[in-house]
Every structure is written in structure tokens, then in C-alpha cells.
């Protein structure tokens, strides 16, 4: 079931021809992706995508009460430098589509980013807090973590 959610997220988020795979073997859980015709591809960007997609799959299952997890996820600045700007924007669009489809949101997703979300997701109720590195009063918890 988790692999099905992961695959659905990869399909909705990434270009056509991407297959998401989850394997459980004697070494643990392995999250992977393949591009049709290219096999497994390993880059910093793809590694970031795989992690974010796996986290979103777990969040989705929690929101559907199919996992014993809180329906709450924090992504602390997911390697936006590694992601194409359009893919980063599609991340926000994907999560906002889930929210609209669920009526009353059944999950909370917090993402810290230095890249602004798409214009329609800037401001209330989507953007709850804007922080800055200086002055210290505008940092999270008002201090260096």
C-alpha cells in the first residue's frame, strides 16, 4: 500500500515515465525511482525527490488513517537548490490539491523554504509565518537552533 502511494506521488509530481519503487530486504527499507528507458538514476536532486515523495506517501497514509502516525509532516528546507524550480512549485501544488480534495484538511504539512511558494499559496491561510535570519527576533524560536 505504501509503495502504491509512493508511486502515485511520483507519477503526479514528476515527468512521465518515472516509476517509484520501495523494497524491504535484509538491509532495511530502500526507496528508489527509475526513469523508463534509463534504469536507476542517482543524483542529489533525485535523492531529494525520493525522500520528499516517501515522506508525503507516509503523510497521505496517516491522513487516511492507514498508518499509525500523526498526520503531520515538517520538511525543513528540502534541498531546493537540487530541485528544478518547476518541480519545487509542483510540490506545493500537489499538497494543496490534497487539501482541496479532502474538504476539511486532515493533515498538517509545514515546509520551511527560502524559495517562495506559488503566488496563489502565498499569504493566509497557507503561509503562516515568515522568518528571517536577521534580526534574531525573526528567527524560529528567536534563536539559532
Give a written overview of the molecule.
This protein has 145 residues and is α+β, with helices and mostly antiparallel strands. The chain has 3 helices and 5 strands; from the N terminus they run αβββαβαβ. α1 crosses α2 (44-63). The longest helix has 20 residues, at 44-63. It is globular. It starts with a helix and ends in a 33-residue tail after the last strand.
Considering the chains and any ligands shown, give keywords for the structure.
145 residues, alpha+beta, three-stranded antiparallel beta sheet, 3 helices, globular
Helix percent reads: 25-40%
Q: What fraction of residues sit in β-strands?
A: 15-25%
Strand order of the largest sheet: 1-2-3
Q: Mind telling me the C-alpha Rg? A: 16 Å
Largest sheet descriptor? 3 strands, antiparallel
What form results from the Cα inertia axes?
Answer: globular
Amino acid at each position: 500500500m505504501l509503495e502504491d502511494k509512493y508511486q502515485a506521488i511520483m507519477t503526479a509530481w514528476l515527468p512521465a515515465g518515472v516509476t517509484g519503487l520501495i523494497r524491504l530486504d535484509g538491509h532495511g527499507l530502500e526507496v528508489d525511482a527509475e526513469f523508463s528507458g534509463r534504469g536507476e538514476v542517482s543524483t542529489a536532486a533525485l535523492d531529494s525527490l525520493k525522500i520528499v515523495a516517501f515522506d508525503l506517501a507516509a503523510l497521505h497514509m496517516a491522513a487516511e488513517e492507514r498508518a499509525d502516525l500523526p498526520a503531520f509532516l515538517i520538511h525543513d528546507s528540502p534541498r531546493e537548490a537540487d530541485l528544478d524550480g518547476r518541480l519545487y512549485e509542483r510540490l506545493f501544488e500537489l499538497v494543496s490539491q490534497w487539501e482541496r480534495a479532502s474538504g476539511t484538511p486532515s493533515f498538517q504539512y509545514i515546509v520551511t523554504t527560502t524559495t517562495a511558494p506559488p503566488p496563489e499559496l502565498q499569504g493566509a491561510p497557507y503561509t503562516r509565518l515568515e522568518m528571517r535570519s536577521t534580526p534574531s527576533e525573526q528567527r524560529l524560536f528567536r534563536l539559532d537552533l
